[in-house]
Structure formats: C-alpha cells, structure tokens
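Quick note —
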Amino acid sequence: MQTKRIFIVAVFVFLILEIFAQQDKVYTASGDILIGELKSFQRGVLVFDTDYADSEFQIDWDEINGVAIGRSHLIYTADGGKYKGGLVPLGRGRLTRLVTADGEITMSLDEIVEIASLDKRFWDRMIVSIDAGLSITKANNVKQSSAQANISYRGDKWLLSGNFSNVGTTQDDVDPTVRTEGGLFFTRDLFGNAIIMGGADFLSNSEQLLDLRSTGKAGFGYYFFRSNQLYLLAGAGFALSNERYGGDNATSGNSFEGLGAVEFNAYNLGDLSFLARLMTYPSLTDPGRWRINADFSLKYDLPLDFYVKLTYTHNFDSDPLIDVPRNDYVFKTSLGWEWD
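Predicted structure written out below.
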C-alpha cells in the first residue's frame, strides 16, 4: 500500500513538472507576461497559445521585449545561422541568450528572423489564403471575375508552396477570355543564407491563343538580406518549357532556358505587406528570345484574418512561336481570407 502511494505521488509530481517545463513565456513591451506555448514566429509575427484565451495571440515582434522557451526549437538568424535550442531573456533591452547543445550565444531579438517548433502538428505548419474579385462595367456589359488560392507548408528545413489563379472576362459582341495559371515551388535550406529551389508552373491564356505553357525549373538561391521585417532573395538556374498554341496556326515547341529570379518581401509594415517577384528566362535553344514574368502585390490586413489586395501580373515574350501580342498583363483587386 505504501509503495502504491509513493508511486502515485511520484507520477503526480512528474506531471506537474512536465506541465511547467513545457510552458513558454512572452514579455511584452507594455509589461504583460503571457504564459503558454510558442507556436511559431515568422514574417514578423509571433503566434502564442495560452490556456486562458479561446484563440491564439498574434503579436508583432517589435512589441516584444523578451521570450523564454525551454523546449528545443529551430531558430533562424539574419546572418544565415540555424540553431536548435531555446531562448532565455537577459532583461536588458531586447537582449536574449540562445542556448544550444554546443553552448550559449547572446544576441538581440532583432537578429532572429524565424522560430519553428520541432513538434508542430501538420495543420500548424500550413498557411492558406483564398481571395476573389468582381468588377462590372455598364458600357458594353463588361464583367471580370478573379479567384486565387495560395497554400504553403513549412518543414524544419524546407518549404513547399502552391498557387492557382483564374481571371475571366466577358463582354457583349466579344468572345470571352480566360487566363489561368498556377504552380508548385520548393525550397530547402543548405548552409548560411543559401538554398536550393525548384518547381513547375503553368499558364493558359485564350487571348494569346496559348493553350498551355508548362515550365519545370531548378537552381540555387541566396538571401542577400533577411530580417524579421523583410527579405531579398535572388537565384539562378535552368528551366525547360513546353508550349502549345491553338488557333488557325496551331503549333507547339520545347525550349531549354536559363533562369534568373529576384524576390523582395516586406511583411512587417503595420497592417501592410508588399511582395515583388521577377523571373527571367533567356532561351538557350533559341538565342535572342527572352521571357519575363513579374508579379507585384500589396496587401492590407483586416480584422478576423480578412484582407484586401491589389495585384499586378505582367508576362513578356520577346519572340512568341506564333504572331500574338508579346505582352500580357492583369491588374486586379480582391477581398480574401488567410488561415495560418
């Protein structure tokens, strides 16, 4: 009987210690202390879960003076460092101590660009956004509708993302036009700020008689600048494209191309975020031909995870396979919702 009581007490003490050991703390600039579980930190926002709130807290990194996490996390720094360990606030400004199996490092919170939990559930690693837009013009009864979806999944050292968008236009006495594009993209951390990247995308545009252009690509990238407010990424590699045009002069062809990419993302501008992406494809099998894809978006966050977004997309082909316009562009406004 005595042995049974000792065993019950030991289990109870172990559970209590385990509960407290798993609790993280966030010290805010206003003097509040939150106790719970750090879910993630990325794009300038820390997500924190507590037992006394129905929903998770989302806190701007600039509003935090200290973070204490004892459980092991993946911690990324602006200089390209990747560490597995915890954080201990030092109580002096925004200084913190990074504790790893190899030792301790003192740094500012401003040097940390991302924190990922090693025991995150599948759904906790995903970000999903959906938006749609509609415009109607009385003259000629012009109607344009758009829809877009984005999804990304973050592993410990890699990121997989996908996107799909569709724009349709109808007008009296004019054939309707439809533009559809999408793709999958993959990146994996190498060393420092270097990554490998690859993916595939497709484009269909009835106005240009383009039934389908599919492009597979792979290469290397490097973060020339990365902070908890923005990053600048550039890369180079190779691509293989297959094009099929319809119409009276239906034709198809393959092209082996070089790849140059630049991406700039500013995501901690209050409720604003800005993304610019430029992809260039100089043809190696058809010298002198260039394709350029450019995307720009400005997003403003609304309550309840809703947002409004302005998007501009431009595609240029210096020498299409058939006689069609070399430029194609889309400007759209949309209302969306994001889950992360």
